[in-house]
């Protein structure tokens, strides 16, 4: 029996990759360079399944390949705005993602950014390393306490809810959220979460506004100068979702002008490029997309993608099917 041919577009952590290599005829792109759009198009003819990851441009052209061999995209990652799922569906190609397993790791990064921004951690560390620390001072590097402050969550999916739980328990924050659909009374009660029926309303009351929406056209530049202008001058913006949700020029302007107090970002619109206006700002904490970057989480993401691929080739319903 010939094994299904699978392309993994970027190396996976050891355990999950070894699992795939033991079961399938696997090719891994270990060149250190993401595959080009043309290579992805070619892969649809050469492989039975493509395991894509963040940033691979799986657009309509990829799914328009005539008589494509690939019938399955086992995406490594929770977000899949890089995949045109409508085009995949129309072409009869199954697509899966890897939700759940990165929820806690990503929520942890949201909390880390809240603490780093509110307590001016990067700014202080930079001063210290540059030999500019003058010693303990009664008014030096004063930040803001988070205890009793309102965390406003934009979107209320798994990662937002985990962030709410951790922020309430560990930091004593109050929870408010906006999402297109109000959560059930049970979920709200469990998290003591208060629904705000508009994004503008949430922006106005939040001390920390944390973004948890998917990327893509619908949420592009949802946080712009207008919305930032509704926020409190003491407010902090946190983004662990997708860079495209924030209009980065507007954010840089708002941080410079003191329209808001600080921002903690893990994601950027044009990764790995970071908007140059953000780089010199002392009130911006900038992390290199670390949301899911723990050994445990990245292995679990690989195994979750592998499970989806296994189910597909076993002819069974694919657990995390998104198309
Ligand atoms: C995802 O899975 O969507 C993450 O952003 C990758 O870390």
Provide the descriptors you would attach to this structure in a database record.
323 residues, alpha/beta, Rossmann fold, 12 helices, 37% helix, binds (2R)-2,3-dihydroxypropanoic acid
Characterization of the model:
The strands form two sheets. The protein has a seven-stranded parallel sheet with strand order 8-7-6-9-10-11-12, sandwiched between helices. The protein has two domains: 116 residues, 3-Layer(aba) Sandwich (Rossmann fold); 184 residues, NAD(P)-binding Rossmann-like Domain (Rossmann fold, 3-Layer(aba) Sandwich), CATH 3.40.50.720. The relative contact order is 0.15. The chain has 323 residues and is an alpha/beta fold. Strand 10, helix 11 and strand 11 form a beta-alpha-beta unit. The structure holds (2R)-2,3-dihydroxypropanoic acid (DGY). The site of (2R)-2,3-dihydroxypropanoic acid has 7 residues, from loops.
